[in-house]
Amino acid sequence: MTAQLIDGNALSKQLRAQVAERATALKAQGVTPGLAVVLVGDNQASQVYVRNKVKACQDSGLHSVLEKYEADMSEAELLARVEALNNDPSIHGILVQLPLPAHIDAQKVIEAISPLKDVDGFHIASAGALMTGMPGFWPCTPYGCMKMLESIGYDLKGKHAVVIGRSNIVGKPMALMLLQKNATVTICHSATRDLKAQTLQADVIVAAVGKRNVLTADMVKPGAVVLDVGMNRNDEGKLCGDVDFDGVREVASHITPVPGGVGPMTITMLLVNTLEAAERAAAGA
Ligand code: GUN
Fold this sequence. Notes:
With 285 residues, the chain is an alpha/beta fold. The protein folds into 2 domains: 29-117, Rossmann fold; 140-262, 3-Layer(aba) Sandwich (Rossmann fold). Helix 7 (171-180) links the parallel strand 5 (160-164) and strand 6 (184-188). It is globular, with a radius of gyration of 19 Å. The strands form 3 sheets. It has a 6-stranded parallel sheet with strand order 1-11-8-7-5-6. It has a 3-stranded parallel sheet with strand order 3-2-4, sandwiched between helices. It contains 10 helices and 11 strands. Guanine (GUN) binds next to strand 4.
């Protein structure tokens, strides 16, 4: 079997068109959805990410502001900027790009963002909302994975999902989202004794480790759905995921490519969250 690709670019295009439509409807009510992106320092990768986020907002009719600060900005100054954005009615979503310089406590900054504007879904209140099934913002990458499963009409009820990776940004929230859809979920990590024994049981595998070839064909049950969250470089410097794509695609029923899979979905879900924040604000929620 050669797996069907789940095309993150095509799905993003559809979802972003819906975002643009909802943004137009909101603007007719006098509310333009707005995202503030805050970048501290000159991390090269972060510069590219924030540019892409701002451009995606523009393309979907969302207002965006990019605030760039020098690497020596103090924690107090950054906290003051976050507070100002919390109080700015033209801004519905706030994203402080990570990583922050070492002298700034990133968790403290995240906790300073109003949960009503936490479109990254990184605030403890957002994590708690996800855990308890309350309304809140879901972290964009695992949320995008859920949309990809939805796009192929996949019913998670009773299925066994294995998440490889336990980060606060992807692995843990991913597991909770899968659980919420009634999957039986296993989280694997660096101390897991026999990863292959776990993944061979899985109907759905999400690889979110940040290491090449974490998942190879011999570790996948025929017909499983494989989502690859990894972003790595191979020996030739080409972008690749955590999954041995060429091997696994011969065993899986569906697989996400890298690039063009989960990556574009992350920014798409940021737009969705920002729009949702604006709609909630407009409704007085
Ligand atoms: N750095 C890398 N990915 C992300 C992300 O999704 N959000 C933020 N705030 N920083 C990041």
